[in-house]
Structure formats: structure tokens, C-alpha cells
Amino acid sequence: MTQVVKLAVLISGSGRTLQNFIDLIERGELPARVEVVVSSRADVQGVERARRHGRPVEIVPRKNYPSEESFSDAITGILDRYAPDLALLAGFMSFYRIPPRWLGKVLNIHPALLPRFGGAGMYGHRVHEAVLAAGEKETGCTVHFADNQYDHGPIVLQRKVPVLPNDTPDSLAERVFREELSAYPEAVRLFAEGRLNGNPQGRR
After folding, report:
1. Is the terminal CB of the chain with fewer CB neighbours within 10 Å at N or C?
2. Exposed, middle or buried by CB within 10 Å (0-12, 13-18, 19+), for 195?
């Protein structure tokens, strides 16, 4: 049986991924509800998008916290308060250290085919530049359960795209992002249908 999945969406920028989820939900194409949007920056378009659609917004600036632990505790406090079924990292640029009770409930999307082109410092255009520099013939995106390592954790699904001879980081990024727009909601849909087990026990 399909359930309506309560989501927390964590952002740091334009909120294009957030907007995609909002649009799908409002069109009745995804059985989910955005309970809260958490942003590590106040002055980004993603915050405006959330407020325009009447979604609660919590601002947690990384610079306001002296340590990764205190910053992560603030994020966890918000998740505990809103109690979403899933937290989605959607261009969230600060490292969130996930406590044991939230492991298996946090999804991330990465713009490459993990485990390749992942890890600390590999985000945004850096990923696409590295793919082009390596001469890859294909790339894509990966949805995975996040753990406390960068771009690590059980993979849920991947989508592949070709790397074309005349690609630039911009053109490649756009082709990958088009796949992200379907891949990330598909992962949430699998969860809603009870086909995605987020239990992290025994996973490394």
C-alpha cells in the first residue's frame, strides 16, 4: 500500500530540486508532502521557493555554529521536531553528521555514478569537470542512503547519460540534472510503496 511520505528537504542554493518535488506533489504525481525546508543559507532562491509555496522554512547557517557536531545537532533537532519519514539532501553544501536514529532515513543525490567521482570536495561542476578530464564515455546520477562519509552509503538507484564529444561542464551538468529530476522522485516513490528498506543495520 502506498503511503504519503513526509519529507524534510535540506538545501543551500537555488532549490531547483526542491521545486521539482513541490511541482510533482502539487500535480498529484508523487505521494509525498514537504513538511519542512531546512536551508544552511538565508539568502538563496530555494528559501523563496519554499515560502512561495507555503512550506515551513528553518534557517541553520553553518557559520553560526562552532563545530560540525553543534551544527548537526541543530539539524537533528529540526528533524526530530517535524518527524519526516525521509530527509532529502538536495544541494545541501554543509556536512550533516547523521545520528544513529536517523541513519536509513536520509537520502542524497550525487551527480555521478558512485563510487566514481565522489568524496570530499566533489560537488557541482567539480564533478562534471572531473568526468570530462577523465575521458569518460558515460556518467549520470546516483540516489543513495547517506551515512557519515561523503557520497557513501547504500545505493538506491542510478541513471546513466552519455558524455558527448563536445560537452562542457555546463552541458553535461544539464543533461545529468534532467535525469536527477526523475531519479530522486522515483526513490521517494519506491519508499512510499514500501519497496525501499532504509534499515542500515549491517551496511558498510
Report:
1. N
2. exposed
Write out the catalytic residue numbers.
110
Cα 161 to chain centroid distance, Å, stands at: 19
Cell 572531473 locates to 130
pLDDT in tens, 160-199: 999 999 999 999 999 999 999 999 999 999 999 998 865 4
Radius of gyration of the chain (CA): 16
Letter for the amino acid at 39? S
- Is the distance from CB of 82 to CB of 36 less than 8 angstroms? yes
| Residue among 136, 133, 109 at smallest CA distance from 123 | 109
**Residue ranges, CATH 3.40.50.170, the chain:** 1-102
pTM for this predicted structure:
0.93
pLDDT at residue 76, as a whole number: 98
> Homologous superfamily of 1-102 in CATH?
Formyl transferase, N-terminal domain (3.40.50.170)
